[in-house]
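Journal club prep — side note

Before the paper discussion, L.F. wants everyone to see what a predicted structure for a comparable chain looks like in C-alpha cell form. Sequence:
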Amino acid sequence: MRHAAAVPVALFSDHYVNIRAPHASDVIAAQLRETGLVTVDGLHNRQNVLALAARLMAITPHPHSAPDGLTLIRDTGSHAHRAGFAGLGSGDLQAHTERSGVPRPPRLMLLVCLRPAPTGGDVLLADGRDVHARLVHSCREAAITFSQPRTAYFGSGAGHATQVITAQADGRISIRLRQDGLARWSPIAQPYLPRLRGAITDSQHRIILQAGQGYLLDNHRWLHARTRFTGDRQLLRALGEPLFPLPEGFAPCPPAAPLATSARRCRT
C-alpha cells in the first residue's frame, strides 16, 4: 500500500480542526465541503463524542447503536466469522461505505478512539475522488462498468441493488462500496474488481488513532478500513445527516467527459 505506508501523522495533521476554537462548527462544515474529511481530538468519553456529533449532525440509529445513537465498536468475541460483522471482530476490515446496504447510507460518520489497541488497529482511509481518478486513468472501462445501475447488491435479503460509482445530475460523483460476504456483483463487474481494489489500495492513507482522537468523514466520498489488532480496542461511532449544506459526493479530478462517452479497453 503505497500511500498507507506513508508517515501516519500526515493525514491527521493535514485535516485537523480544533473543535474548541471559536466557530469550529463552521470550519468543520467548510472543510467537509472541500475535502470530505476532518480529524479531531479531545474526545475522551461518551459525553464528549455525543456532544460533538449533536453539534454537526442529526444522529441516525444503527442496528447496534445504544439509545443515544452511538455504537461501541470493539471485538465482541462472537461476531468475527459472521458475514457483515467484521467491524465487531479483530481482523482486517476492508474498505467500505458505512451502511452500504440501505437505500441511502448516512451522509456523515464520526469515529472516535476511546482505547487504542496494543498492536494494530490502524485506520486506512481512501478518498473516493482519488480512487475514481486512478480508476479512470488506469482502466476507464472499469470506471464505466462500476457506474452502471444495479451492477452490485450490498446487504442480506433486505439489501440494496446499486452501483459503486453514481454520477449526480450536476456532474458530481458519489461512491458506495462493501467487499465482504454480503457483496454480490454482476458478471459484467466481477472481472474489474482487481482494478477497483488496486485503485483503493493506491489511494489509502494510514492513521494511528490515540485515545481521544477521531475523524469525521463524508460517507458518500471516503472509504474507511482497518488493520487487524490485538487487545480491547474501543471506539465510538456516530452516523447521521449534516446540519449544514453539503453537496453530494465530489467533483471528479480531473473534470472529464461523461464516462459513457469514451472507453479504454484494459486487461482485467
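L.F.'s comment for the group: The chain has one domain: 9-261. Keep this in mind when we get to the figures.
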